[in-house]
Write a structure and sequence with these properties.
mainly alpha; two-stranded antiparallel ribbon; 6 helices; 2 strands
Length: 207
């Protein structure tokens, strides 16, 4: 099969991963702002259900990242650090999903949900830190990696601070940073696509 847009399977899977990242962060930002300004606008069950769906997006995103690595050139300098980073992202996204599901169960202890969310955010921090250990090939990718780390650190700060309004504001700021980060990663995707196009031409066989 030949494809004019995706060019190869690495670009194919990474495109959908980045797109899910963007949609997921738009969803989290919208819901967190809504929860901050009008906490009683939706009933708690509907709110929790939306957060479960958003968490599912990031579980899928983390899975797609492994497909990206599978089709990637193994001689790339960051190959093994990317595997480790994706592993922590996978653990983190599942922890968030389990926490979101348990939130719908009234008998679940608050400490259990907090623990799962903390595991999730720590996983994202570790994954983002690993990703910055070896610098990316271009400036845009470096900026994206550091925004990814910054967003995760704001999430971590939000889990530590106990004052609810301040926690929500920090979380929203983390959402904004992550949304910017997701857009930067998509810009990097188009840069990578252009580079491959210039090297190999318009059609690259997808095998």
């Amino acid at each position: 099969m030949k494809n004019k847009f995706f060019l190869n399977y690495t670009l194919f899977w990474s495109f959908w991963a980045h797109l899910l990242f963007i949609f997921g962060m738009i969803g989290y930002l919208f819901m967190d702002i809504l929860d901050y300004m009008h906490s009683n606008l939706f009933n708690s069950f509907l709110t929790n259900l939306i957060y479960i769906l958003l968490a599912c997006l990031f579980v899928i995103n983390a899975t797609l990242q492994f497909f990206v690595i599978y089709y990637m050139n193994k001689n790339v300098q960051r190959y093994y650090t990317m595997i480790l980073s994706c592993l922590f992202d996978k653990i983190a996204s599942h922890a968030y999903l389990i926490g979101a599901i348990l939130t719908t169960i009234t008998s679940t202890k608050v400490t259990t949900i907090w623990t799962l969310n903390t595991i999730g955010v720590c996983g994202f921090v570790i994954g983002a830190t690993i990703n910055t250990m070896i610098s990316a090939a271009n400036a845009m990718s470096i900026w994206a990696d550091y925004f990814n780390l910054l967003g995760s650190l704001f999430y971590l700060l939000a889990t530590i601070i106990t004052r609810i309004p301040l926690t929500q504001l920090i979380g929203i700021l983390g959402d904004v940073i992550y949304l910017i980060d997701s857009i930067l990663y998509m810009i990097c995707w188009f840069q990578d696509r252009q580079m491959i196009h210039d090297q190999f031409g318009q059609y690259v066989s997808l095998k």
